[in-house]
Write a structure and sequence with these properties.
single chain; alpha+beta; Alpha-Beta Plaits; about 40% helix
Length: about 100
């Protein structure tokens, strides 16, 4: 398995995550299209937020980055936010 973490900070991040919370069903529907998705978590940190995606392989996490970027461009382009900090790598342990 492979995971990618996207962290949004700074100006606009809080507004983005408030918007994502209101549109959580749409976000979930978009991410469910990612091939090999194992789990997706979106958390609001109060001043921004983090998305954690776990897929069967890197191909899936790469697809998740594109799906997330496209969804934000299509639905939240009115919110100016810096690109996320992206951290990724193979999963060592996952507890379900």
């Amino acid at each position: 398995m492979y995971a990618v973490i996207r962290t949004y900070l700074g100006a606009g991040a809080k507004e983005l995550f408030e918007f994502l919370e209101k549109r959580n069903a749409d976000v979930e529907a978009a991410l469910r299209t990612v091939p090999g998705i194992e789990s997706y978590t979106l958390l609001n940190t109060g001043d921004g937020g983090t998305a954690v995606t776990v897929c069967k392989d890197k191909t899936g996490t790469d697809a998740s980055l594109k799906v997330a970027r496209d969804w934000i461009q299509k639905n939240a382009s009115h919110i100016q936010v810096k690109p996320p900090i992206v951290t990724e790598g193979p999963v060592i342990v996952q507890i379900k």
